Structure formats: C-alpha cells, structure tokens
Amino acid sequence: MTVPEFAVATQFYTEEEVRAPEFINSLQGVVKKQRKFCVPKSELARFWSTISRVPYALGAVASDITDPVLRYIHKILVATLVGRGEGDNKVNQVSLFCLMCMVEQRPVNLATVFAMYIKRLWRGGAGARIYCGPLITWLAESLGVFERYPADKMKKGPDPCLMSVRDLQSAAIIARTDPITWEPIREGPQVQPPPGSGAAEAMQGAVPTRCQRPYVPRIRQDILARQYPLAQPRPDPLTLDSLYDFMQAGFDELRMFVDDQISGFRHEVLAEIVVGQRRLDDGMRAIMQGIRVSPPPSWQPSEAGPSGTHAGDED
C-alpha cells in the first residue's frame, strides 16, 4: 500500500486531495541531514526556544512549555495522532514537529507522519500496541477490520481513560480557580529584586498582611575552608600477572639474602681454617725446639704458605 492509498484508506485525505500538489509538497518529518520536504533537528531546537525557557534536549517534557494552551495541544497530540505508552508529558521529535507545524501554520502531510508512527510501532513485533485513543476505532472502520474479523474473535483492549479537570489541573494547564481559567503564561524563573527597590516593595505589598515578615538583613559569616586529608592511593587490582610479579620479586630478594649468608659463612670458615693451621704450626715448632730437634726442610718458611699466607704473616 502506497502513502496516497494509505491516506485515502484512513480517511485523512480524499482522492482529490491526494492528487493535489500540496499533498506531495508538504512537510513529512524530521531528519538528521537536510532532505527535501523535511526539517532538520536544529529547526526543532529553534522552535523549542520560542515556547520554553529550558534548552532543548532528548529528555524534554511538556511541563517546560510556558503557554498552557500549547501544553494542552501537545497532550492531545500524544493521546491521538502520535500517542505512545511511556507517558503524555514527554516531548519527542514527532510530537514537537506536529506542534511546530500547527503553531507556525506550516503545511504537513499527516498521512506520512501517521504512517511513520505505525512503522515505528510495528518494530515491537506481535506484542506491539497502538496508542492513539479514539483514532483506533476510526482507523479500524476505515480499513474494514470489523467486516473481515468478527468482534468475538478479537481481543478487547483496556478501557479508555477520559481526561478530567483534575488531570488538567495537575498538568498545570488550567488554574485551580472558580470559574476555571487557563494557567498564566510562565515568564521564566522569578528573581528576588534587590531590597529597598520599588519592585521589592510591590512584591511585599502583594503578600497578605498576616503573611508578611519584616526584612532582616543576614550577615554572612566567613567560615574557613575545611582541610581534608588526601586519600591514600588505591592499590593495584590483584591479578595473575601482578601476583606472579610480586612472588618473583620476593624470590629474588630471598635468593640474594641466601647468597649473602652463604658468602659470609664461607669467609668465616676459611678464616677459622687459616687460624687453626697457624696454631698447629706454632705448636709443632715449639715442641721441636723443646726437644732440640731441628724442623724438617719442608717446614722452612716459604713465600706463600699452604693456605695462601706469606711468610711474613707469621708474626
């Protein structure tokens, strides 16, 4: 089914209106890049800045719109033409696009907008639901659903929920007054005027006498900034590589310690052997001198002893 056929089947347009040039030359939606008969996202941000005091973002809400009439129109749009199940206070690109075309009186192709909306819901699979209020019955009658499918074979949906005066008052669309009127247009956040000025006196005079309080100037006390100790750096996370490096460093330190101990013990043993050899030589020489026996030629002092000591080291 083509878009013109879909427009005629849903009774958005007649066959004569579909053949008119205005049907093709109307706006069709919002795109990221510039395309014919579409508006970029920057155009939505420009329009949002004219109806709200909050910068445009993906999480924009209808309660940020300053004009209550525009908030009411947006609530109707998200409950009928571009309805969705996540709530009627959220502002997405499609609802803001429709609102911009209505406010600025720019021609828009409703059949294309509604077809893109149905296509987006179709991505949800068999469990997808169409949130467009009374347009569901109108769409089903236009497409002949009740003629092809008996009513007893169709699954009944949830009961419709009508919008009450209390709902509109909670949404800050109408005022809680008698008689009921629109909420005043928001001019932005109220700023406290400087004390003693005419604006401050006018604001004070608007407050009932029983609620007025005398102005008492507040003296700000300078408080020294608290000095907080620096937090200790976090240790490195324990992994197999860090554990291996830690154990390898420990083994290296242990090996160096053992080598130092063995080297020192070796020097001490060699020194004890040299001292014992000297004592033995001195004892044998003293015994031979006592019995007046000359030492053998092999006992004569040499330049280097058996243990590597020189003859002069005997003294």
Q: Mean pLDDT, as a whole number?
A: 77
Shape: elongated
Count every helix, treating DSSP H or I runs of 4 or more residues as helices: 12
Beta strand count:
2
Structural class by SSE content:
mainly alpha
Helix and strand element order: HHHEEHHHHHHHHH
Low-confidence stretches: 302-315
**How is the largest sheet built, in terms of strand order?**
1-2
Largest sheet: 2 strands, parallel
Q: Strand-residue fraction?
A: under 5%
Radius of gyration from CA coordinates:
49 Å
User: What proportion of the residues is helical, as a percent range?
Assistant: 40-55%
Alpha-carbon distance between the two ends: 123 Å
What is the secondary structure topology, with strand pairs?
Elements: H1 3-9, H2 15-19, H3 21-24, E1 30-31, E2 39-40, H4 41-51, H5 68-79, H6 93-103, H7 110-122, H8 135-142, H9 145-148, H10 165-170, H11 198-206, H12 240-290
Parallel strand pairs: 1-2
Helix pairs in contact: 1-7, 4-6, 5-6
